[in-house]
Amino acid sequence: MARCPRRAATSTTPVAAAAADEEPPRGRPPRWSAYPGARRPCGRRTGVVMGRVTVRRPVLRLGPDGQERRRPDALAAEEPLEIRVDGKPLSVTMRTPGNDVELAHGFLLTEGVIGSSEDLLAARYCDSLDDQGRNTYNVLDVTLAPGVQPPDTSLERNFYTTSSCGVCGKASLDAVRLKSRFTPATDAVRVHYRTIITLPDALREAQQVFSSTGGLHGAALFTADGELIVAREDVGRHNAVDKVLGRCLLDGRIPAVGTVLMVSGRASFELVQKAVMAGVPMMTAVSAPSSLAVELAAEAGMTLVGFLRGETMNVYAHSERIDR
């Protein structure tokens, strides 16, 4: 069982400046907090370890005329992340390691637990060891600020979600639809059609790991002028969105007024709900939306675009924000 460090006196330092892009290395360094003022192992700045984002495995490549070729291939890493709140397990999600603090912030935001970075005091990796005694950094415990209502784990999830679906672990239908403290309905942003059609290529250019593995979903937030704010990749599309929104929360950009969320796959109900929970006024996707996603977008006042390919798109809800 993973052990978390004893809690030190809680700090009131806002976590908006947290180094959420960082990921601890393999091995067994001292346990550390992801937030300002924490002592990091050996005083070193710990950057993202690409060895955890991708793994290399042997592959047999078959071609025409019986051609065979054996070579190593780069694969997108997939590992479980257990998120705990004040020491109590909340959820396990299958994710690509890296940006875990962003993921936790985005997850708690889109679950309606928090609304700003000040609602969390700290995030700590717990000791979770592999069969060789090395810390896997796959258990993250977050501390809520005083006065923040903790989530009711009995209603939220059956503890486990896959990389393809985050609402699949919901324990009840009532827990699927969440009430947002932000509303995109009053956002007066307008985005030109010519700007929107540039977003898929801009997202693809930002997906550095996808270019080497072909196995990651991508999500990115843009300004109304098409300027990239933040982009993230993950084996789970909902995780990629959580990482983007978590980064925005840490940077004080929630509610995400005047922005466009671009996703690499389909526009599911879950992704639309996450965008609504963050106050995103427009969401675009390269593939189709589901019927419930369209219903939610229309109800929440969010513009929803699907089949965004080349110079064409389908607008399913609130087309008034798109200038032609």
Outline the structure in words:
Residues 7-51 have low confidence and may be disordered. This protein has 9 helices and 15 strands. With 324 residues, it is an alpha/beta fold. It is 22% helix and 27% strand. It has a domain at 184-323: Cytidine Deaminase, domain 2 (3-Layer(aba) Sandwich).
Topology:
Blueprint: H1 50-53, E1 54-62, E2 68-76, E3 79-85, E4 88-95, H2 100-110, E5 120-125, E6 139-144, H3 153-156, E7 160-161, E8 191-192, H4 193-196, H5 199-206, H6 208-213, E9 217-223, E10 228-234, H7 237-250, E11 259-263, H8 269-277, E12 282-285, H9 291-300, E13 303-309, E14 312-317, E15 322-323
Parallel strand pairs: 3-6, 4-7, 8-15, 11-12, 12-13
Antiparallel strand pairs: 1-2, 3-4, 5-6, 9-10, 9-11, 13-14
Any descriptors?
5-stranded mixed β-sheet, 27% strand, alpha/beta, flat, 324 residues, 6-stranded mixed β-sheet
